[in-house]
Amino acid sequence: MSLTNKVAIITGAARGIGLAIARRFAIDGAKVVIADVDDDAGEAAAEDLRAIGEALFIHCNVAERLDVRNLVAETLNAFGDIDILVNNAGIAVGADFLDLEEADFDRVLQVNLKGTFLCSQAVARHMVEKVEAGGEPGTIINMSSINAVLAIPGQVPYCVSKGGVAQLTKATALALAPHGIRVNAIGPGSIMTEMLASVNSDPAARARILSRTPMGRVGEPSEIAGVAAFLASGDASYVTGQTLYADGGRLPLNYTVAVPDAE
Ligand SMILES: NC(=O)c1ccc[n+]([C@@H]2O[C@H](COP(=O)([O-])OP(=O)(O)OC[C@H]3O[C@@H](n4cnc5c(N)ncnc54)[C@H](O)[C@@H]3O)[C@@H](O)[C@H]2O)c1
Questions:
Q1: Alpha-carbon torsion 83, 117, 164, 192, what sign?
Q2: Which residues line ligand 1 (CB under 6 A)?
């Protein structure tokens, strides 16, 4: 198992893509910490994963510095180390640009971008100390999106936050490369989770998504977990500062290429 005895924190892992990553990491041998604001779902997810391996839920709002400090302290207390951080927690607030509230803009940026920074800095401080004491360098994986480069007019703060995550990934990768710590991002396309559910239940919106997805289907959370497992493993030992897009072919799609009706 590629992650045997590694300690991994996954934020926003009470459900969706984060939970799929936590499950995959547990299957691959890691001890996993589920960090989320949803206590009930987070506790239930951890209980579920304890059938596979060691798993713990820790309440954490990634946008709150003190919560993040507590997440690191409690993880070290429970498992004595942190090898992998997955900054997956994310929210989206849809609004027409002209009506977008300042508070909603701030809220999305605070969770998606500032939360990624706060968790990365707090965990990187531990990882650098460990390297300086002769330990193995860890790795950080950020959850970006195809919306780092493709825009949705009704999702301005989300698109801005994910573009920011892509650049945060590159800058953090350069800052931590001298310590051997790798930092990468995943850019999912349309993945079947609660975040996508409202779009997916609208047939016209679903048809629009599929008409721009050459593979002709939405992705499963486990397909993003597979990418995370690769980036977290030694197989990615020379990969840093990258965003790996898993999008069924959406980003390469040009307007001259017809996508057949699917599903
Ligand atoms: N689903 C998709 O199609 C898709 C596509 C591209 C990128 N992503 C990204 O993948 C990540 C996960 O998305 P998902 O679809 O699984 O979403 P989801 O809404 O199903 O789950 C998100 C989880 O994050 C938690 N969360 C929200 N705010 C938090 C906070 N402040 N602190 C800690 N936890 C918090 C929620 O409680 C929830 O458990 C997000 O960053 C999202 O932007 C999703």
A1: positive
A2: 11-12, 14-18, 36-38, 60-63, 88-91, 111, 115, 143, 145, 188, 190-191, 193-196
pTM: 0.98
How many angstroms separate the CA atoms of 6 and 81, rounded? 8
Name the residue of 9, 17, 85, 220 to mutate for ligand 1: max ligand atoms within 8 A of Cβ: 17
Which residues are CB-contacts of 91 (< 8 A; sequence separation ≥ 6)? 107, 108, 111, 112
Q: Please give the domain boundaries of the chain with CATH numbers for all domains.
A: 7-192+220-246 (3.40.50.720)
Q: Residues in the chain, how many? A: 263
Amino acid identity, position 208: R
Phi, psi at residue 33, to the nearest 5°? -110, 120
Distance CA 101, CA 124 (A): 33
C-alpha–C-alpha distance, residues 19 and 229, integer Å: 13
Residue 255 is a catalytic residue: no
Helix (H, G, I), strand (E, B) or coil at 178: helix
pLDDT digits (tens, 9 = 90+) for 78-131: 999 999 999 999 999 999 999 999 999 999 999 999 999 999 999 999 999 999
Q: What are the two backbone dihedrals, phi and then psi, of residue 144, each rounded to the nearest 5 degrees?
A: -95, -140
